[in-house]
Amino acid sequence: MAGLGGLRGDLGCRQIGEADLGPVIACLRRGFPGRSRAYWEAGIARLSRREPVEGCPKYGYLLESAGQTVGVILMIFSCYGEGASAEIRCNLSSWCVDPEYRSYGARLVFAAVRHRGVTFTNVSPMEPTWAVASGFGFQRFCEGQFVFLPALNRPARGDRTLPYSPDLPEARALSEEERRILDEHAAMGCLSLICVSGGKVAPLVLQRKLLLKGLAPARQIVYCRDIADLPRIAGTLGRFLLARGGLLCVVDANGGIEGLSGRFFHNRGPKYFRGPRPPKLGDLSYSEIVLFGA
Q1: What is the pTM of this model?
Q2: Neighbour count for residue 22 (Cβ, 10 Å)
Q3: Mean pLDDT over all residues of the chain?
Q4: Helix (H) or strand (E) run with residue 242 in it
Q5: In sequence order, what are the residues at sequence separation of 6 or more whose Cβ sits closer than 8 angstroms to the Cβ of residue 287?
Q6: Is 145-277 the same fold as 11-116?
Q7: What is the pLDDT of residues 119-136, one digit of tens each?
Q8: Which CATH fold would you assign to the domain 145-277?
Q9: Above 70 in pLDDT, residue 84?
Q10: How far is CA 161 from CA 214, 243, 282, in A?
Q11: What are the residue boundaries of the structural domains of the chain, listed by start?
Q12: How far apart are CA 248 and CA 227, in angstroms?
């Protein structure tokens, strides 16, 4: 089959370079007509400012015909940890191919996932591609999303939520990697917080999100140490958000979360992975949700 084997003589598949970014954005606009040029330009600019992971593409791969970009898959690589515990993750994003070349679109995915030892994620698959993801060896690790109202939880005396700053005394209770995540995500426009509850300190990163077809503003959790922390910190978080006009929060989940008042939506925002380490629920750090927006 053409899509699963080699390419036509006039087709090529290669890494995206700096000189390709204009044609790549044009291809993405054709593939996702609901997204503006400004949306793609802002996301690509954030991606371009990131240091590449050694031995990995900085942007991803493109499919070209007679020198014209006709397909794209973006790749967002991140390195977590150090030494023997280090792991590389890659969020595969924005896979699109012009209609006349779609039978060759699988070549982009094969090029992307050939990097060994990497955990790949797809965090925004459209419903028609769910079966395709399984065909490429991806497994579902997130069944849906849980929408909750943190302000309905009661904070304990002394609980507090603070905008992250490396100078805060509470920041010293976080790991070096957690401080890096909070710092870098704040620089990308996220809300990076430190929640103190019950004498324990928890890092949290939130991204703006719109629910109900854009009618209900919310905050999506893009990083927390453990979603089991959420019932404990929800009260102080809820009051922090209420003071800033926020009510709703969204977190990836596989069902309801005991201790939180909300509702689980099955098959809303399911997520897939392929690789050695299943991703952790509540961790969308450095993904397209951050770089391109929810």
Answers
A1: 0.90
A2: 12
A3: 92
A4: helix 230-242
A5: 76, 91, 93, 121, 123, 222
A6: yes
A7: 999 998 888 888 888 888
A8: Aminopeptidase (3.40.630)
A9: no
A10: 27, 11, 18
A11: 11-116, 145-277
A12: 16
